[in-house]
Each structure stands twice: as structure tokens, then as C-alpha cells.
Write a structure and sequence with these properties.
The protein has 285 residues and is α+β, with helices and mostly antiparallel strands. The protein is 47% helix and 6% strand. Bound molecules: glutathione.
């Protein structure tokens, strides 16, 4: 166990041997590390992603659009293995200079549209297909409120709580306490909101729910960081009801499989090029 206190030097330097789960991929600079073109399939929408909570938002949205009858939402999904540094390939960086999944290329526009940040991708798809985003008024504003709430809040859950509770090479009380406090506050915010309405922005299921579910739904369903007992997630009854309702949607079951390269082997699908690819996985036991 190293010292639990640390006196920062005058100038920080990059210690490449610092260890930890992401030591291999984290760097203090941006940009490509190697030349690698992205594959391109036949559909107008090309997704480059991985089935982490941020990636699942987009595959669930695409599967919801297809389930709602928007045939033009057909897509090719390619795996970006962030553990192997695929996000630093030149083709990926040309689409997302921030080197993080998910990234989407919409080839139905001229010139093609490059999208990164899951919130931007969800808004683009919602507006393109006129779905899961109310057209005007307070319902639209509420949807944006809860969509942007997720973008600002989840880094405290993932990068803060999850990192120090599950991934850091050693457990430190100070960051775990600090981020647990914040995550429980966030769970309470969501629980109270979902005590007022069926979905986050009102009576209808929207991109606000699609963005929040993989993080906060996953957490209260015990699928994230193995932290259900530690956080006493059963306390948040409205949030759990919402999480279970969304989990039961067929499009959510389909979207969760896409670009999944870890976990249950019977629920993995590295690339998706048609509905049949997902159907084949769902047929497994
Ligand atoms: N705010 C971004 C977050 C994206 C993000 O953090 N992606 C992670 C995986 S969940 C990633 O690609 N990490 C790779 C890296 O940091 O090198 C979004 O919502 O799209």
C-alpha cells in the first residue's frame, strides 16, 4: 500500500508506469497514435462504438427507431476496442478528435456528417427521424434538461465513483466517500423526479431516458461496478420501477448486445450489419 497522502511537485510529469486499469490507454495528449482507416458498410449510418453505457445509449436509440418503423435507421456497427487503443487510430480521430466512443458517421448527408458525444448523436437521430424528442414546448425543454443532466452528472458516477470504487489499484476512503455522496444524491434526484412522472421528461419515453438508463438504470439493477449493496439501491423505488420498465423493452434488449465484446459470451455481438445479426444472438440460451 502506498502513502495515502501526496505532495504534488511544482510541475506534474507523466508517469507512464502509474498502473491502474486504464494506465495503458490514458495519455495527457490527444491525437492519433497510428494510421488506421475505419471500415465502412452499406448502410447510411456507420457506428463506431463499444457496449459501455455511453455506447449502449446509441445502439438502443437505433434499435428503438427501427422498432418504431424508421427503416432508414438501418446501421452498421463496428467495434472500437478502447482497451487496445482503437480510439487513437487516424480514421477514428478524424471523426472524433476526443478519441472516445461512441462516434457516428451519417453518410446520407452531403458532405457526410461526423458525430461524437452521445448527447449530440441522440439529438441528431431524434431530429432526423422525428422521434423520442417532443417537437416543441416544455416537454422538449424537459427532455433537454434531463439529457444534459446526464451528460454533466454521469462523469461523477463513472469517472469518480466507479473509478475509485471498482478500478483504482488501491482503495482510498476520501474519493470513495466524496463520490458515493454525490452518486447517492444523484440517485435521489432521479428517484424523486420519477415519483412525479412515468419517464424523466413526462409521460413519454424520450432520448433523456435512453441517455440515463445505461448509467443509472444499470446501477440500480446491479449491473454496474457490483455496487448495488454498497449504495443500497433498493431504496430508490421509483428509479427501479423506471429501470425495469425500460429493461423490458425489446429494442433495449437488442441494443445492449451490439458491440458487446465482454460479459456473458451468449450475449456478445462484435459487429452488427442487419437485424438478423442480433436475432441470431438472441436465439442463444
Ligand atoms: N461524454 C462522452 C463520454 C464518452 C466516453 O467517455 N467514452 C469512453 C467509454 S465509456 C471511452 O471511449 N474511453 C476511451 C478513452 O478514454 O480513451 C459521451 O457521452 O459520448
Amino acid at each position: 500500500m502506498s502513502d495515502s497522502t501526496y505532495t504534488p511537485p511544482k510541475v506534474w510529469t507523466w508517469d507512464q508506469e502509474s498502473g491502474g486499469r486504464f494506465a495503458k490507454i490514458n495519455r495527457p495528449v490527444s491525437g492519433a497514435t497510428h494510421d488506421k482507416a475505419l471500415p465502412v458498410g452499406e448502410h447510411p449510418l456507420q457506428l463506431y462504438s463499444l457496449a459501455t453505457p455511453n455506447g449502449v445509449k446509441v445502439t438502443v436509440m437505433l434499435e428503438e427507431l427501427l422498432a418504431a418503423g424508421h427503416a432508414d435507421a438501418e446501421y452498421d456497427a463496428w467495434t472500437i476496442d478502447i482497451g487496445e487503443g482503437d480510439q487513437f487510430g487516424s480514421g477514428f480521430v478524424a471523426v472524433n478528435p476526443n478519441s472516445k466512443i461512441p462516434a457516428l458517421v451519417d453518410r446520407s448527408t452531403t458532405p457526410e456528417t461526423h458525430l461524437f458525444e452521445s448527447g449530440s448523436i441522440l439529438v441528431h437521430l431524434a431530429e432526423k427521424f422525428g422521434a423520442f424528442l417532443p417537437e416543441s414546448g416544455s416537454a422538449r425543454t424537459e427532455t433537454f434538461n434531463w439529457l444534459f443532466w446526464q451528460m454533466g452528472s454521469a462523469p461523477f458516477l463513472g469517472g469518480g465513483f466507479g473509478h475509485f470504487y471498482a478500478y483504482a489499484p488501491e482503495k482510498y476512503e476520501y474519493p470513495i466517500n466524496r463520490y458515493t455522496m454525490e452518486v447517492k444524491r444523484q440517485l435521489d434526484v432521479l428517484d424523486k423526479q420519477l415519483g412525479r412522472s412515468a419517464f424523466l421528461a413526462g409521460d413519454d419515453y424520450t432520448i433523456a431516458d435512453i441517455a440515463n438508463w445505461p448509467w443509472y438504470g444499470g446501477l440500480v439493477l446491479g449491473q454496474l461496478y457490483d455496487a448495488g449493496e454498497f449504495l443500497q439501491v433498493e431504496e430508490y423505488e421509483n428509479l427501479r420501477r423506471w429501470a425495469e420498465t425500460i429493461r423490458a423493452r425489446p429494442a433495449v434488449e437488442r441494443g445492449r448486445i451490439v458491440n458487446k465484446t465482454f460479459g456473458d459470451e451468449n450475449r456478445q455481438l462484435r459487429e452488427r450489419h442487419s437485424a438478423a445479426d442480433i436475432d441470431a444472438v438472441l436465439k442463444r440460451n
